[in-house]
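Section 5: illustrative case.
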């Protein structure tokens, strides 16, 4: 490996520490190198906190002058909750900046690179670009479409059922798989389920790998008619963990909505889709406006099918257990309008189960979806830099 690749991998590893804490900002890590030695490290720890470049420069101190900066995304050049990172980079005397990809934020989108180059800083682009896109897939989708990245998680038997006929067989997947799901929750902004899942399982939807994780995802329930029980776990813990119930904007639901809100639940009143059901696209747009860019959907079958049909599920995580259910089990999905093609497929063994991770290939029907973009989440194509430099991954 070249040194540039090793250093960018270190920056990406640092960025991962911010997973679950930075949305709607990206996950960013930074490494400062002088005379072949790392003299500063930093990452964006949480939304509203200093950016990775600022933390790395503070860590390096005077050693940053004349050094190289490796950062996982184009430095910002505008005021937000914090000052522009380009100003900090220039004051520190950094001589060279290496980044994998441009920032699609329309307020940045190549301007950060231009500011640095105009001041005489060498900027190289393209090192580990694919890895950087994977790192910030939720942020990139949010900026490019105004929608969150949605991972649809399923736990199924070998014959594709999400429940078995046996009443005493509570879990489809192994204990190791359930722990993996808790980790997925911990790295997501929100966990989404349909009302049937709530009525059947009374779930808590929290990360319980430890007695109580310091940070929990938001819980979102798609519940068009507000059937969620007020005595259930989700509502009873709503003052502790951020809990959202999405329902139809219907005056007949006002009393039930008020009862939930009095218990700390946030109620999203959304328009119906063409079939009169809750509009999943409107729900995703609302989530994005609330700064939720990375959603783990844990079912059930109706919600999962709707997300796939409407091209709203971006990734798939399927835990396949070595069990057979037969006709008595509930199918994992309903009738899809067409074939859903998967790509970037990875299989992994988790306990006794097999985990399939894949991206959902965008279909032609994507063009049929309305693409309403809010001004603050819209994007334009980042300019291509003619002299972009890529590093070898040898």
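Designed sequence:
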């Amino acid at each position: 490996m070249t040194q540039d690749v090793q250093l960018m991998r270190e920056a990406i590893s640092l960025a991962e520490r911010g997973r679950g804490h930075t949305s709607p900002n990206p996950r960013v890590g930074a490494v400062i190198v002088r005379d072949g030695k790392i003299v500063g490290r930093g990452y964006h720890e949480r939304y509203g906190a200093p950016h990775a470049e600022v933390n790395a420069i503070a860590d390096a101190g005077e050693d940053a002058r004349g050094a190289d900066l490796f950062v996982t995304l184009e430095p910002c050049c505008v005021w937000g909750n914090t000052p522009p990172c380009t100003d900090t980079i220039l004051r520190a005397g950094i001589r060279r900046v290496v980044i994998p990809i441009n920032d699609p934020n329309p307020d940045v989108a190549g301007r950060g690179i231009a500011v640095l180059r105009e001041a005489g800083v060498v900027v190289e682009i393209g090192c580990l670009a694919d890895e950087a896109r994977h790192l910030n897939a939720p942020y990139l989708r949010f900026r490019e479409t105004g929608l969150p990245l949605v991972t649809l998680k399923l736990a199924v038997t070998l014959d594709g059922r999400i429940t078995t006929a046996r009443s005493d067989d509570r879990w489809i997947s192994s204990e190791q798989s359930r722990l993996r799901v808790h980790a997925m929750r911990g790295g997501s902004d929100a966990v989404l389920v349909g009302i049937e899942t709530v009525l059947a399982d009374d779930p808590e939807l929290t990360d319980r790998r430890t007695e109580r994780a310091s940070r929990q995802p938001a819980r979102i329930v798609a519940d068009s008619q507000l059937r969620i029980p007020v005595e259930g776990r989700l509502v009873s813990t709503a003052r502790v963990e951020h809990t959202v119930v999405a329902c139809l904007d219907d005056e007949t639901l006002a009393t039930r909505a008020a009862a939930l809100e009095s218990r700390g639940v946030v109620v999203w009143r959304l328009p119906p889709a063409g079939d009169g059901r809750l509009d999943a696209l409107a729900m995703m747009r609302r989530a994005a406006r609330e700064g939720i860019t990375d959603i783990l959907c844990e079912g059930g079958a109706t919600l999962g099918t709707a997300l796939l049909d409407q091209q709203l599920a971006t990734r798939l995580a399927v835990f396949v257990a070595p069990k057979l259910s037969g006709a008595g089990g509930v199918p994992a999905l309903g009738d899809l309008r067409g074939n859903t093609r998967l790509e970037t497929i990875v299989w992994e063994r988790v306990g006794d189960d097999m985990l399939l991770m894949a991206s959902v290939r965008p279909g032609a029907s994507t063009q049929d979806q309305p693409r309403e973009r809010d001004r603050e989440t819209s994007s334009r194509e980042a300019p291509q830099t003619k002299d972009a430099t890529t590093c070898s991954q040898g």
